[in-house]
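Summary for the lay section of the report: proteins are chains of building blocks that fold into shapes. Here we show the chain for GNAT family N-acetyltransferase and then a coded description of the shape we predicted for it.
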Amino acid sequence: MEVGQPTHMGRHVLFEADEPAVRAAAATVDVAHTWLKAPVEPEDIRPWLPRGWVVDEAEAGHLMAVDLTATGPVAPDGYTASLETDDGVTYVRVRDAGGEVAAQGQMALLGQEAVFDKVVTEEAHRRRGLGAFVMRALADHAVAEGASLGVLAATDEGRALYETLGWKSHTRLAACIYRP
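The coded shape description reads as follows.
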């Protein structure tokens, strides 16, 4: 998938991590700062990577999932929320009283699965329930669209939030980047 950021141009996500699959995905990449994520321990994937690829231990995470339920979330006092879908991706943005984005996240549907991504709360707005609100708003939309399972890749920090919302970690997730 295209990401389009200077240090994160694109991303391959593998559902199964074995040597042939990792080598095949890596061989298709010729653009620097393309990532590859796979459900495998970071140290196990390293020998399968061709020249130019590195394992980014700091970006390794956890593959998490949850059975989705609707909860009817309400934005915390002092904040407003918007939900929009563009080209198959649903975005939730939470703004403060001044109109600045305080928290946001996105989700895409793949059949009955909803893939959550890029859930971020700005530093000045943390510990106010905004991350939980974004996750619940995205989940409500996913359920309304027929999804029953949510999946995401979590950092160690994000994992703590997601676990409070009922998400379960199923495996480690290696993060690799192409730096020729």
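Put simply, here is one thing we learned. The radius of gyration is 17 Å.
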